[in-house]
């Protein structure tokens, strides 16, 4: 069984909206709904677990799950203090799963073919994640000065989904909990076990909506997607 674990418990303080950025409307539809749509429509995803803040569970049920009639959402889980805690809470609900696809609720433009590729790589290697190559020159800074220019061909910016064999990612989280290890993403926890994570090259459109500037970028990406969809329809 392949489960999509969508993490949507963050408050998005950097956005300064006064409410969770997951419910921000882009072209009339919530960010979180656009994200769920991708996994709901993907035939290779068997079920979905969503992690939301405790005080938003009822709102999410009524205004997202029931409103859009999602069929694959099997559990809505209460988030924790940090993202790492939220993911672990979600993993506990994935006991029947063989593969878990962990994805940020604020990344609504992930492509289905990229999700599938992470699943295939996780089946083969145990762990995989989407990433994109650095476009700009990357430098190491110490204090007030540049110390070293890094080879940008070897630098990738990590994205989600990050996809794992269930027992591996559960063990990584339990090990981190036992050792007091905190990380900003799940691949880092797997690396703590000495395991390698396979790279799947993703898309620069797979942005995480974090700041107000990202809203305008998201609207442009959506317009581009609609334009190319129309172009394809014309030539089919």
How is this structure best summarized?
The chain has 236 residues and is of the alpha/beta class. It is built from 7 helices and 11 strands. It has one domain (2-130, 157-235): Spore Coat Polysaccharide Biosynthesis Protein SpsA, Chain A (Alpha-Beta Complex), CATH 3.90.550.10.
Query: Tell me, what's the shape?
Result: globular
Kindly report the average pLDDT value.
92
| Coarse structural class | alpha/beta
Task: Report the major sheet.
Answer: 7 strands, mixed
Helix content: 25-40%
- Share in β-strands: 25-35%
Mind explaining what this structure looks like?
The protein is an alpha/beta fold and 236 residues long. The protein has one domain: Spore Coat Polysaccharide Biosynthesis Protein SpsA, Chain A (Alpha-Beta Complex). 39% of the residues lie in helices and 26% in strands. It contains seven helices and eleven strands. The protein has helices at 31-41, 57-68, 83-92, 112-125, 166-179, 186-191, 212-235; strands at 2-8, 25-26, 29-30, 47-52, 73-78, 99-104, 127-133, 138-142, 145-150, 156-165, 198-201. A seven-stranded mixed sheet has the order 5-4-1-6-10-7-11, with helices on both faces. Strands 2-3 form a two-stranded antiparallel sheet. The relative contact order is 0.16.
């Amino acid at each position: 069984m392949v489960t999509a674990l969508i993490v949507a418990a963050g408050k998005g303080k950097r956005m300064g909206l006064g409410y969770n950025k997951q419910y921000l409307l882009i072209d009339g539809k919530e960010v979180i709904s656009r994200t769920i749509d991708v996994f709901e429509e993907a035939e290779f995803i068997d079920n979905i677990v969503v992690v939301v803040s405790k005080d938003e569970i009822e709102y999410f049920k009524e205004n997202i799950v029931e409103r859009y009639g999602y069929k694959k959402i099997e559990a809505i889980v209460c988030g924790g203090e940090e993202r790492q805690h939220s993911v672990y809470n979600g993993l506990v609900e994935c006991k029947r799963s063989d593969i878990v696809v962990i994805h940020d609720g604020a990344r609504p433009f992930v492509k289905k073919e990229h999700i599938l590729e992470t699943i295939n790589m996780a089946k083969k290697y145990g762990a995989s994640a989407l990433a994109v190559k650095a476009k700009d020159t990357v430098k190491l800074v110490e204090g007030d000065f540049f110390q070293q220019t890094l080879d940008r061909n070897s630098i990738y910016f990590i994205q989600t989904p990050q996809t794992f064999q269930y027992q591996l990612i559960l063990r990584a989280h339990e090990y981190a909990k036992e050792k007091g290890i905190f990380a900003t993403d799940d691949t880092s926890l797997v690396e703590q076990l000495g395991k390698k994570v396979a790279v799947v090259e993703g898309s620069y459109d797979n942005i995480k909506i974090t700041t107000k500037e990202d809203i305008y970028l998201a609207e442009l990406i959506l317009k581009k997607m609609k334009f190319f969809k129309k172009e394809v329809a014309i030539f089919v």
